[in-house]
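Lecture 7 notes: from sequence to structure.

We start with a single chain of 745 residues. Read the sequence below before looking at the structure.
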Amino acid sequence: MATFLYKLGRLAFRRRHFVALIWVALLTLAGVGAASAPPAGNSSFSIPGTEAQKAFDLLEQRFPGASADGATARVVFKAPSGEKMTDADNKATVQKTVDELADGSEVASVADPYTGNAVSKDGTIAYASVKYDVSGMELEESTKDALEDAAQQARDAGLTVEVGGDALQAVPETGATEVIGIAVAAVVLVITFGSLVAAGLPLLTALIGVGIGVSSITALASALELGSTTSILAMMIGLAVGIDYALFIVSRYRAELAEGREREEAAGRAVGTAGSAVVFAGLTVVIALVGLAVVNIPMLTKMGVAAAGTVAIAVLIALTMIPALLGYAGRRVKPAGAKGRLLGRSRKDEPKQDAPAGPPKANLGTRWASFVVRRPLAVLLLGVIGLGAAAVPAASLELGLPDDGSQPTSTTQRRAYDLLSEGFGPGFNGPLMVVVDAKGSDAPKDAFDDVAGEIKGLDGVVAVTPPAPNKGGDTATITVIPDSKPSSVQTEDLVHAIRDAGGDVEAKTGAETLVTGSTAMNIDVSEKLKDALVPYLVLVVGLAFLLLIVVFRSILVPLKAALGFLLSVMAALGAVVAVFQWGWLSGLMGVEETGPVMSMMPIFMVGVVFGLAMDYEVFLVTRMREAFVHGEKPNQAVVTGFKHGARVVTAAAVIMMAVFAGFIGSSESMVKMIGFGLAIAVFFDAFVVRMAIVPAVLALLGKKAWWLPKWLDRALPNVDVEGEGLRTAGERGSDPDEDRELVRA
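Now the structure, written as tokens:
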């Protein structure tokens, strides 16, 4: 592989005009496709294999034309102090609002509060339910404007009016902090390279890669039903890995220049060595993201595949466009240790040629690695105990999906949620829909009544509506109002209790009872994700473990990498629980409402963090293996690896943290939580696991770290990540481009 990538790097350097033209053309093509594509439609949230989804599909069949997937809105009215909603003036205002809403072209139905028993017992709060023919993302802006105008007119008449539901659903915004994250990345690159030109290359290529990836997602969003969150997550991950991959190749290029090589040769060797690490690091990220398909949640699968595509683009750009741009930059990209005047010394500060040359001063990475190999056990214990302490809150992890109760208090959706809780109880915001399929029953009506009677006798039930059968009389719906809020453990227990009671009725009558609705769907999603976590972990870690055995030709090094990842991801989950569930530092993070952690957060973090963790493992440890296979002792190889790689890995980690942290300013709670979780996970993994635990473990293992059974060594392909073939060819004075015996790609 190293020889193939070496050739690719030299070719891209020589044919830089052609390479640059190809990538600019791809960016233009993707941009045109995104601009001309129809707007994204409904991003369906189907969960195959769950009872809630089965009930939803049954409703589509047995209640045709009911628009089960249509948007909903609850217009909540509160009377002024000392008045009631049943007063004549207030009643007239509500009636006028209902009539205006019913005139909408996309409105399926509007329920009058006074005929639908939607007035609170104390008479101060009422609500009108609006049902639309299309989903919230497909509603026309004129329909949303009409809803807001109707609510505003009622406010002008003296009522407090708020609107809940998904009809006013908006595309999430990432906020200005995303730009701050990129700015921080730029500063780190300038400090690392000491040159604006060298620092600009990773930023430029990352932005081009993300531009192609996100534009492609936008162009395909309507056809593939991709949600707005998909492009945001692809941008988040694509920016982070795009900058990092380019950073490693540019750094290796400068190191090759420092050894006296010509620029084309240095570009080829940089791509052949650091590029090999980029390929395998990118493969681990792609495996982790595509592996999300095993969860069998279409939305999560699409998010993973889209992000994986952006990562693949980042790898290809790093391997081809970076050497092409290095050709354009010429002497403006200086060898390592020869910084320009931006951050380096001025000419008058340089030592005179006849001054005695002392031994070069060891850099910080060398000094830190030397300390670790002298005190490996102490460093190992301190790192493990520290991560273990950070992981403690993860034991209290509660999973759920966000609803209007998790919205900021400044939104009308949240205020409507609070008004409904005040007037009708917290469970009113999360009604359960029970679907009774009596097609196989001899007495459908009796079966409907039996189910309703069983539910009324359960604890935690406030109200049960009479069964509402379809035209065929073989299926009925029953609405159940819990006495607890939608995201509570009590509501989850009630859902299971209803399902258990339905099983008893089915045994007697033959009628099947299913529980659905947004609350039940959230519960089923959380359980499905929880059940899929272990199989997913085994699949992803197993495949990456095999890949790392090929890369490092070792058993213990990949095993140590996987165990270190588990430590970092558990510590990151603990931090997420502490902030988003317990409320620690919630004000600093802009978390206005604490609650359960998003149910897909653990499995998403496992996938993404594992891929990113292996990035640093590959980049740092390949330098150690390179030193070891060239004759250095194990401990000295660890120090050499840090000497050449610590500065770059540190810069890469800081950049990735800055990019992820930039998404904490998003208006979407899921994006905010993922941004924080990934940023803190990178911190734990890069600075505690890879910078402390990894060298400590390698120092304790010594030569055993690189042990591989002879039979396995013969069976594995030699991918030559450390570029041994290039070095051997150079030592013989031959051209690797012509030495076929060394091609190991």
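Confidence is low (pLDDT under 50) at residues 342-358, 729-734, 736-745. Keep this in mind for problem set 3.
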